[in-house]
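Inverse folding, one chain.
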């Protein structure tokens, strides 16, 4: 399977609580509505927890503060995604999703990329 990963940062004027609520209750249902046009098989939101464990994990590694969350979207194959991308319905779905993401995400500080999973255990 092909996986799309979207590391998300919230817009600075939006509180973490409002961000998570909008992402889950508004954007999530919109993604569900668009999934067929995109031929997406699975969509998962992972919301970053507000816990001291984050600092404990970052400190020894010297990493940046965490993203506010990440999204994972799966397709059966690269070919399936490419076929979907060649349809007007998928173009419209991507337009709607990007327009909505601009409402709550700090897009220039987000990151998106495709991955291939390798299960270790």
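Residues assigned per position:
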């Amino acid at each position: 399977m092909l996986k799309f990963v979207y590391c998300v940062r919230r817009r600075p004027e939006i509180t973490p609580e409002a961000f998570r609520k909008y992402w889950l209750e508004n954007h999530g249902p919109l993604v569900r509505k668009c999934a067929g046009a995109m031929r997406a098989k699975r969509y998962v939101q992972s919301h970053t927890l507000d816990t001291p464990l984050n600092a404990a994990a970052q400190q020894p590694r010297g990493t940046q503060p965490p993203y506010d969350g990440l999204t994972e979207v799966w397709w059966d194959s690269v070919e399936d995604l490419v076929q979907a991308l060649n349809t007007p319905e998928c173009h419209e779905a991507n337009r709607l999703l990007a327009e909505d993401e601009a409402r709550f995400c700090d897009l220039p500080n987000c990151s998106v990329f495709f991955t291939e999973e390798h299960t270790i255990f």
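The CA atoms of residues 35 and 41 lie 7 Å apart. The beta strands are 2-8, 42-47, 69-75, 111-115.
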